[in-house]
Design goal:
This protein is mainly β. It is built from one helix and 26 strands. About 10% of the residues lie in helices and about 55% in strands.
């Protein structure tokens, strides 16, 4: 009798186990009523970092869902402790299969800005009696990056094809470097690093600037889109020069040779001294002083850019 009881018990356990397994497998086959979930920015680019104050594509979080069947949808935003922050859709009628977008502007139910932190969208379907939380995070970050350091002192750019001046920087965190000339943004660095450098070719939108001294300011733009305010940027002074002569004041004896160093990115330049002129390629210009004592002007030109030096000729 004991043996029969044991056998029946084992058979019962096996049947129960098989039934539980079958139910579990069946539940696995039941598809979620919501699919195609995504969090993206204003332009539909998937991201989890947002800044409602950035005035950029990341100023809004766009929440996308698809339904397998028509239903009434409520979408709420909860914080990291699952406390409700805002409702961005309330019992809205949504059709099946087509993507539906709901936008959160980063504000709470009372209209004030939500504090920086991690948030999650919750979706509730009235007919299906189903509620689910997105695994996608929404991270609000409104703190602008800080510029810790940038070059101090004047930097010189011998401008020309392929010539640039390097501007190293250090930020408070990973960010793009942003360089301004006055109020105009002229460089947005490609790297997202806390320390790196950008290079400037002395141009604005590809157009070379005239020779002269320019005051640039260096800021940062983080991944969320926050930018360093103008008052917190670092100033960098760059002197753009296309051709330079050294020395700029030359003393020579009449009829004697003298030398001038020519610093330029150009392969060829022209020179003029008194009634004489010519063209050279060498970085060292060797000329003969005029025979008549006096002060002369040496003019060296490349691609429309000119440098001058004063040549004082004394009698033998």
């Amino acid at each position: 009798m004991q043996r029969v009881f044991t056998t029946v018990t084992l058979l019962g356990l096996l049947v129960a186990t098989a039934a539980a397994f079958a139910i579990t497998e069946h539940l696995k086959l039941i598809k979620s009523p919501v699919f195609g979930t995504e969090v993206s920015n204003n332009k539909g680019v998937p991201t989890k970092l947002f800044s409602p104050v950035c005035h950029c594509p990341n100023s809004r979080a766009r929440i996308t869902i698809r339904l397998r069947h028509h239903d009434h949808v409520t979408v709420t935003i909860v914080d990291a402790e699952n406390q409700q922050v805002a409702t961005i859709a309330s019992d809205e009628s949504v059709g099946a299969h087509a993507p539906q977008h709901f936008v959160w502007d980063g504000r709470m139910a009372d209209g004030t800005m939500a504090p920086d932190g991690v948030y999650h969208p919750w979706v509730h379907l009235s007919h299906a009696r189903w509620t689910g939380r997105f695994t996608n995070n929404i991270i609000l970050d409104t703190a602008p990056p800080k510029v810790l350091s940038a070059p101090v002192g004047k930097r010189i750019l011998s401008a020309g094809p392929g010539r640039t001046v390097a501007i190293p920087y250090s930020f408070s965190g990973p960010a793009h470097a942003v360089v301004y000339l006055g109020r105009r943004q002229i460089i947005l660095g490609r790297k997202v690093e806390p320390q790196y450098k950008v290079k400037w070719a002395g141009t604005v939108e590809g157009t070379p600037l005239p020779a002269g001294t320019y005051v640039l300011t260096v800021g940062a733009q983080d991944i969320a889109g926050n930018k360093t305010p103008a008052s917190a940027r670092k100033t960098v002074t760059v002197t753009v020069s296309y051709i330079q002569l050294a020395p700029e004041r030359i003393a020579a004896r009449s009829g004697r040779r003298f030398t001038v160093h020519v610093k330029t990115a150009a392969r060829r330049y022209t020179w003029r001294l008194g009634h004489r002129h010519g063209a050279r390629r060498s970085k060292v210009l060797r000329l003969r002083a005029p025979t008549t004592p006096g002060t002369y002007r040496l003019v060296v030109t490349e691609n429309g850019h000119t440098a001058t030096a004063a040549v004082r000729v004394r009698a033998k």
